[in-house]
């Protein structure tokens, strides 16, 4: 009886360890097939080579073999932090090479999960502002267009971060931020600060575009994960639609 209890404890500990790794990766922008591969490799290195996993953008299902019950984990929030994805990959690799134990892997995964975002919010806003100005020039805007695009793109990105925390409704933040960007671009041209409103708008909305989500959707489709690829593609399309609607509303009003 004691042996059965120890076996069950080991089984559930391994399942929880693999699920924790998968959760961190999926929440921080990893591709579906990468999450599944990491979980099965970790299970195999811990003595369960027949593990099975099924991952979608919102759900992880995992079991170590065909006879044990499947355990499910629901993903409610997703963001982008590729540093955490890289750290989980490193932990998985070290576990597979027997450089760390399961307990050490669990401790390190807990630290990765609890760690703050790789970059502070103020630095993200500054990076978004510089990105918007550079894209404005890249899309053949003048330096006089890049000048207003610098604060406009920063304010738009800051609005997305703030509204995501304030309102739980999906795509409302992107719609509102793009509307703000269009409004600021219109008035910057009207006041003579900028020259071409379309170039300012195009450059300023680029930090809002879901580039990573589109890339992951295509990679999941190419890897045969049709459900995940289509759902991520739909998510990216709705985000782009919200951005376009916000800009379109400004253009229709002014």
Low-confidence stretches: 1-9
Rg estimate, integer Å? 22 Å
Distance between the termini: 76 Å
Average pLDDT rating? 87
SS content category: mainly alpha
Shape: elongated
Q: What is the chain-wise order of helices and strands?
A: HHEEEHHHHHHHH
Note the total helix count.
10
Strands, total number = 3
Largest sheet: 3 strands, antiparallel
Estimate the strand proportion.
Answer: 5-15%
What percentage of residues falls in helices of 4 or more residues? over 70%
Output the strand order for the largest sheet: 1-2-3
Give an overview of the whole structure:
- The chain is mainly alpha-helical.
- The protein is 70% helix and 5% strand.
- The protein contains ten helices and three strands; from the N terminus they run ααβββαααααααα.
- The chain has helices spanning 2-27, 32-45, 82-96, 102-114, 121-138, 143-166, 172-190, 197-205, 211-222, 226-253; strands spanning 52-55, 59-63, 71-74.
- It has a three-stranded antiparallel β-sheet with strand order 1-2-3, with helices on one face.
- The protein is elongated and about 70 Å long.
- Residues 1-9 have low confidence and may be disordered.
- InterPro entries: ThrE-like_N, ThrE_Dicarb/AminoAcid_Exp.
- Belongs to the ThrE exporter (TC 2.A.79) family.
- It is found in: Cell membrane.
